[in-house]
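Re: the 344-residue chain
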Amino acid sequence: MSTVRTTVAAAPRPRRASRSTRAATVDSDVFGERFERLVDNVSQVIKGKSDIIRLCLVGMLAEGHVLFEDLPGTGKTMLARSIAQTINARASRIQCTPDLLPADITGSTVLNRTTGAFVFREGPVFANVFLADEVNRATPKTQSALLEAMAEKRVSFDGVTHPLPKPFFVLATMNPIELAGTFPLPEAQLDRFLFKLSLGYAGREAEAELVRANSRQEAINTLTAVVEIQELVDMIEWAKDVTLSDEVLYYVIDLVQATRTDPALQMGGSSRATQALVRAARVMAASQGRDDVLPDDVKALVTPVLAHRLVLTPDAQLRDESIDGVIDRILHRVKVPLGARSGA
């Protein structure tokens, strides 16, 4: 199970004027303020897990998807619902079982009795926030129905392509204990997830807050939207232009390429992993009110981005090495660009 590093707040830096290509309603201050508003709102329901909430929101704003490998009852479903209600989004949930069919996720054609024509009826994947509960209980054929949706934000059925709404965010869960009747996710599908995280059990005080907040009714029922969908889309577009210096870009590349040559790993990070780390780092920087990426933004995201994409060699497993240990070793080995600033 991956260990999540929290971001060390960087010293404030002078801000540049917004670029003309960025959304006119967003700048670094507005982005940071909206991000904190989202975190505070979701925290009314999910107690004591602000670091995980932040990573989930970073994943969504980076147009990625998140996989939770966690025990039942830790709040995975509630987190998805809270995020959806916080942004006034369309949300859907599907419980994965071995008899689930691909059309149960993507949708299918049905007969319109009025016109006599077949029309496409959208499945639950046509949502802004889509929760696939216990995704490893679905068969490989059904799991593969999500690949196109996650990678290309569209669904192809009967020769016709249907675009998914924007933003589109998949939150999938797996139970690490009950393995009977499950189908492990293939590496190709794991690579589609931006992060793999774990909520874990709440601490003592957080659990007390949770009980108090839900004593009369579920806190989720009183949660209201604090950011509209269009405001979120503006944030997504603005984050794409957060500046990445060549020094930081090559730092990301060096980190990912180091996983491909480490003797303890039989499979390292792909080019998709490099792009995922860059996208997430841009959003992480923006969430702190900056418009340039620092090495600390990258270091804070290396484990959640890379851990589920790496595979240990059999010898490394016999030596009781761990993915987290390998990543720590790589982080210490790859030189950090000192004094890295934003480039063009």
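The first strand starts at residue 66 and ends at 69.
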